[in-house]
Amino acid sequence: MPKLKFFILIIFSSVLLLMSLYFVNFNIFSIPFLSGTQSEWANFGSYIGGTLGPLLAFLAYLGVREQLLLQRKAMNKQVEDKAFDDHIGQVKESFERINQLSIESVKPLESHLGIDVQLSLTRDLQDISADANSSHILEDIIHASRLIQGAEFIYKRYLYLIEQSASSLSEECPLNEHKWNAVVTWRQFEKRATLINSLAVKANRELIEPNPDIYEHEQKEILMSIGAFEGWAREWKSMGLGF
Q1: Quick one: CA torsion of 219, 220, 222, 226, rounded to 10 degrees?
Q2: Which of 35, 5, 1 shows the shortest CA–CA distance to 18?
Q3: For 48-90, how does the pLDDT look when each residue is reduced to its tens digit (9 = 90+)?
């Protein structure tokens, strides 16, 4: 496109120069190296018109083609942006759905302990878990932990897509709602994860470590859950009140 503009500028300047020379030669003073006969100028004009006409037509064609290419790129960009927005929306729905599944997965644990996690103080959850019968709820602990680990993956994916969307923007305002939703939803997992981790640590200490052969598969799941919680706890602590 810049080259096309340069060529058009050269042609326009050349035409303007010829018209200026013609006007000066016949109306102001005679230029020595130019003819004073209008018929010769007419012949020269016909020659220039015949030469420049096809060239101008070709340049016009290039201009139209360039415009069509720009329009096509703009349309493709709109399609890509729409697909990207739809993808972010789908990830958001998946994140909210797994959050709801996580809430449901903790209910058997709440029923076993006779508590409501959301109404309990975070600092009391470890003491509350001391009354749990690990052998009765081991599978529920593992199931609830798996869901939070899956939620972490979706959460990271969610933030990555938001950052990718904002990389070409001078401001992130249109994406602030997505980012706020992601962070707030992820923070809702904290109390559930704290209870699950307390139960996992208790089950590992009292049930799995004394019987590693019996609970070989469960041991891997529980240790993975405990290790994952350590990373989550650091992340939730570093979040503070902001993003």
Answers
A1: 130
A2: 35
A3: 666 666 766 766 777 777 778 888 888 877 777 777 778 888 8
